[in-house]
Amino acid sequence: MRWSLLAVVAVLAAACSSAPEKPKPAPLPTVTGQLTVQKLWETSIGSVTTPLIPSVKGTQVAVASTAGQVAVLDANTGKDIWRLNLNASIQAGVGGDGQRFAVITGNNEVVAMEAGKVLWRYALSALSYTPPVVAGQRVFVLTADRAVTALDGATGQKLWTQQRASDPLILKQAGLLMPFGDALLAGWGGRLASLNPTTGVVRWETLLGASRGTNEVERLVDMVAGVSRLGTTVCARAFQSSVACLDGNRGTNLWSRSAQGHQGVDGDDKLIYGAESDSKVVAWQRSGGQVAWTQEALRFRGVTAPVVLDRSVAFGDDNGWVHFLSKQDGQALQRLSTDGSAIMGRPVLAGQILVVVTRTGGVFGFRPE
Q1: Taking residues 345-361, what's their average pLDDT?
Q2: Average pLDDT over every residue of 60-69
Q3: Number of H helices, E strands in the chain
Q4: Coil, helix or strand for 327?
Q5: Collapsing DSSP states into helix, strand and coil, what is residue 13?
Q6: Which residue segments constitute the domains of the chain, with CATH numbers given?
Q7: Strand, coil or helix: what is 19?
Q8: What is the rounded average pLDDT for all residues in the chain?
Q9: Do 184 and 175 touch, CB atoms closer than 8 A?
């Protein structure tokens, strides 16, 4: 209950500190049409009132609804591989390795599934808004009290827990938790840590986002979901603080730049892409962090975290548009509509298919040519 109240306080305080009226969105930019994108299929999962991040493995994509539907789809066709109703609200998910999948319910239970059936349930002692990580025959969970817990993938038995001191307020959105070679990377406040996935022993911790401001809300800092990995380099965002890249093996900070966004990033071998909280899109040089270009044509449109494609970088927005910007200079190449409701979570790439999920539960598959 304490963590639930604190999470609500964080959200309400942030809302109260914002402008009384939402700024008017920028006019939709003219697209060049230099990119052809084909809509392949459309299906439904049910209403998604909070971002539930899909899980991708090869050409499979797992999606979930707030009311408790979980479906694993063939990204090429949009057809169900299997679908399951958990009869419980879902708070975070989906995590999966292609065989086993896991979500966290509104009752603070980790639910593991395989082939359309529930394998086990595990009750957490704290809230979690981060999708579980399913890897190496284990399920890893990051909770709001800065604890990482490892569960046996077959039985749900707890294997270990590692925790750091928590902050007075928590961020009510997905944090950073991901496998990295033979390690597990986890965000603890403004720090990124590398853990031994077998024992939970911390190998290193690096500060990426420093707390600042005059009150607890302004000082709130945490690592957010959505990173760019290339070789041993990991680039990530600290909430309303910075974007930074580091060596994922040693934890050495390569560069850090002040940034005011709250969504994750993505990147390629040259650039890191992300959006500021006003939806201004920024591209940073991967090698040194210098700003390569900015695009203000989507300001105040509530854009999502990006996903990098072959020729473009794609963002969803609050009105159900999917925007395709040039990776080279941010020019608007193409724009497609979905069902008019907000794109939830971030777009994901399954094979060659871009998959987006909307607030009303629409699931759409697009193929950029």
Answers
A1: 96
A2: 98
A3: 1, 32
A4: coil
A5: helix
A6: 1-51+262-369 (2.130.10.10)
A7: coil
A8: 91
A9: no
- Token pair of 280, please? 């201004």
Q: Strand 183-188 to strand 177-180: parallel, antiparallel, or no bridges (unpaired)?
A: antiparallel
pTM recorded for the entire structure: 0.91
Residue 350 to residue 211: CA distance in whole angstroms: 36
pLDDT band at 165 (very low <50, low <70, confident <90, very high): confident
pLDDT of residue 219: 61
Token pair, residue 330, equals 């941010």
Separation CA 309–CA 345 (nearest Å): 17
pLDDT digits (tens, 9 = 90+) for 208-249: 876 666 655 656 678 999 999 999 999 999 998 999 999 999
Bond from prior residue into 94 cis (ω within 30 degrees of 0) = yes
Cα(182)–Cα(348) distance, rounded to whole angstroms? Answer: 24
Q: Among candidates 297, 255, 253, which has minimal Cα distance to 275?
A: 297
d(CA 141, CA 130): 7
Nearest to 167 by CA among 221, 204, 208: 221
Specify whether the CB–CB gap between 121 and 132 falls below 8 A.
no
Say whether 34 sits in a helix, a strand or coil: coil
Q: In angstroms, what CA-CA distances link 348 with 136, 193, 308, 314, 336?
A: 22, 25, 9, 9, 15
Phi-psi region of 221 (alpha: psi -120 to 50; beta: other; left: phi over 0): beta
Among the listed residues 85, 89, 184, 86, the one whose alpha carbon sits nearest the alpha carbon of residue 129: 89
